[in-house]
TrEMBL record:
Signal peptide: none annotated. It comes from the Bacteria. The keyword Iron-sulfur does not apply. Keywords: Membrane, Transmembrane, Transmembrane helix. The chain crosses the membrane at residues 21-39, 45-67, 88-109, 129-147, 154-175, 214-234. This is ABC transporter permease. The keyword Transcription regulation does not apply.
Length: 237
């Protein structure tokens, strides 16, 4: 087994024994069951709702994961990993693996149950699955950034994370409120709104324009992932 896979396996086992995953996962499953208890539902707008909820739940799940391993044990794990980049990347990958079943459930459950007003197309399923996965990874990276290095107090970590999540969802309102000279600040905010807009207005946009709207959130999340891992490596937790 490669060192990366061994780290992910170890951290998954540690997280599983902590039972800190139980509350966020259970509440998300209940939310999915509730939202599809009323039939029929529109396809893409329903997926928009479940993806936004997953964005928040994935951050909650990640926050619990980053609070699981004691600081002393983290130092030992980092030492045995022999690479700070491998260690921090494995932590983010571990949460993604833990959250992946929630993504599959959110996308497949309404199809299997027949909760939609029509059968989703293959493109709609692919875009919805990708949007849920992208939201999950964005939440994980944001949580890693705040919980790994920014602030040592719980209020600093949680406050920063909640602020980032809130701002990312409030970009359309901020765009109307901010004066023109400060509009550039919105490029720094995590781009959650283009993902939501893609799902909510998929039919009106058309397949190609809708998919194109996911390019910027994807590039932003990729860049933030790389910067976060490099930043944590430089700071040497």
């Amino acid at each position: 087994m490669s060192p990366m896979l061994a780290l992910i396996r170890y951290q998954l086992q540690l997280f599983a024994r902590s039972y800190r995953y139980f509350a966020p996962m259970t509440l998300y499953l209940i939310f999915i069951a509730w939202i599809y208890s009323m039939i029929p539902n529109p396809v893409m707008s329903s997926y928009a709702s479940t993806s936004v909820c997953l964005f928040l739940v994935a951050a909650w799940l990640s926050f619990n994961f980053y609070s699981t391993e004691p600081p002393t044990q983290q130092q030992l794990t980092l030492m045995h990993s022999r690479s700070g980049i491998r260690y921090h990347a494995s932590r983010m990958a571990t949460v993604w693996v833990a959250a992946f079943p929630l993504t599959l459930f959110a996308v497949l459950y309404p199809i299997i149950r027949g909760s939609f007003d029509r059968a989703p197309t293959a493109i709609e399923m692919a875009v919805s699955l990708y949007s849920h996965l992208l939201f999950t990874w964005m939440a994980i990276v944001l949580t890693a950034l705040f919980c790994s290095k920014i602030g040592t107090q719980l209020i600093s970590k949680l406050g920063g994370l909640v602020l980032a999540l809130t701002l990312s969802l409030a970009v359309p309102g901020l765009a109307e409120w901010l004066p023109s000279p400060l509009q550039w600040l919105l490029w720094v905010v995590p781009p959650a709104s283009p993902i939501i807009d893609t799902l909510m207005n998929f039919d009106a946009l058309g397949e190609a324009p809708a998919i194109a709207k996911l390019v910027w959130p994807s590039l932003y999340t990729l860049a933030l992932s790389l910067l976060t891992v490099v930043y944590l490596q430089i700071r040497r937790k």
